[in-house]
Automatic annotation (TrEMBL):
Residue span of region Disordered: 56-94
InterPro entries in UniProt: HAD-SF_hydro_IIB (IPR006379), OTSB-like (IPR044651), Trehalose_PPase (IPR003337)
Comp. bias (Polar residues): 56-66
Catalytic reaction list: alpha,alpha-trehalose 6-phosphate + H2O = alpha,alpha-trehalose + phosphate
Function text: Removes the phosphate from trehalose 6-phosphate to produce free trehalose. Trehalose accumulation in plant may improve abiotic stress tolerance.
UniProt keyword annotations, A-Z: Hydrolase, Stress response
Biased composition (Basic and acidic residues): 67-79
Cofactor: a divalent metal cation
EC number: 3.1.3.12
Protein name: Trehalose 6-phosphate phosphatase
Species for this entry: Carya illinoinensis (Pecan)
Family listed: Belongs to the trehalose phosphatase family.
BP terms from Gene Ontology: trehalose biosynthetic process
One Pfam family recorded for the sequence: Trehalose_PPase
Amino acid sequence: MAHARRSSATQRVLVQQQHHILDGRFIIRNMRLVARRKVKSHRSLGLMGLQRSSASYKQSVQSIQRTTKDENKGRDLSTKTRTAPLLSDPNTNDPVSLDSSYNSWVEEHPSALDSFDRMMKTAKGKRIVVFLDYDGTLSPIVDNPDRALMSEEMRAALRGVAKYFPTAIISGRSRDKVTEFVKLSNVYYAGSHGMDIMAPPIPVKSSTAGNHQTIAPHGKESTEVLFQPAKKFLPAIQEIVTMLEEKTKKIQGVRIEDNGFCVSVHFRQVRAEDYGILEEKVKSVVEKYPEFHLTEGKMVLEVRPSIEWNKGHALEYLLDTLGFSNSSDVLPLYIGDDRSDEDAFKVIRSRGQGYPIIVSSTPKDTKASYSLQDPSEVLSFLLRLARLKEASFSSRTLKNGSS
């Protein structure tokens, strides 16, 4: 039985470990949807290697090939053709396209770049509020989480968007870490999946008073509010971090990241054959803390407090602090790539207004309405959004100056 669990876990890791960065381009490969398909679909796509050994699997599945020109120059890429991912037949090495499934998926989740003009036409007269994930959205997915740095082009584009629209980043990272990565003062930050939020000051409700702390950030005269709904779990989280570090120290490649109000166990560099052992050790720690639960993201296991709070709640809280909670003319826009972002997508869908946008180069189950392939397309989208407002602002300035 243990061997069967390890075999199953090994296959799952092998599927997940097909994330690459090719020649500086951002490629995100999420093969979990393909892995869940029926055997018949596996045969038609030439993916029977998923059932084989580690060596044969690595030989059978080839890197997704995709060309994106001038993506690092900050140019508008909205006119480029979206190309479906390519795999190789393990028997013949001939390319096998996922055109049919990918194109079908894109029909349900149209390109936010191709749909940009239509989206902005619908948004006319409404106040756009921008929410973004960090890893895999503003930065590439990389082997070392400490090296997930956003480009200067992306930072400039984000700065431009935040100049015209209220903008917040909601990340699984600690708030301090994502603030250090982004380095922008005109952006609001929510770390630990929204359990650590720096927001504008608002009247504090009695039910949440103990979770708020009014502070004056360095270099700022005005005060802001630090909202931490999971504050009472901090001592237990520190215990969990210590136990995880001790339990996993002999597993090569594992990395424990303390994100303040949640703990990330990164296994991107862990050998496939060690994943089952790692998973069992992590679960053995979490079982000792009934007020916590385990979730899974892209090549990461996360230990979180079991409270009713996620990125969707963080989005609602920020809209409230910005004065838009009951506004009919606000239009929230959320861009994210991970499973945890689905909670924010659901909130936007439930509001009946706004744009949930998934960042993915492969088909996946999602509540998003639109899609972008990778961070390079996120960059293009943000540039177009900022330029649109710049053009509108310049037009009004000229009109006022001539009157």
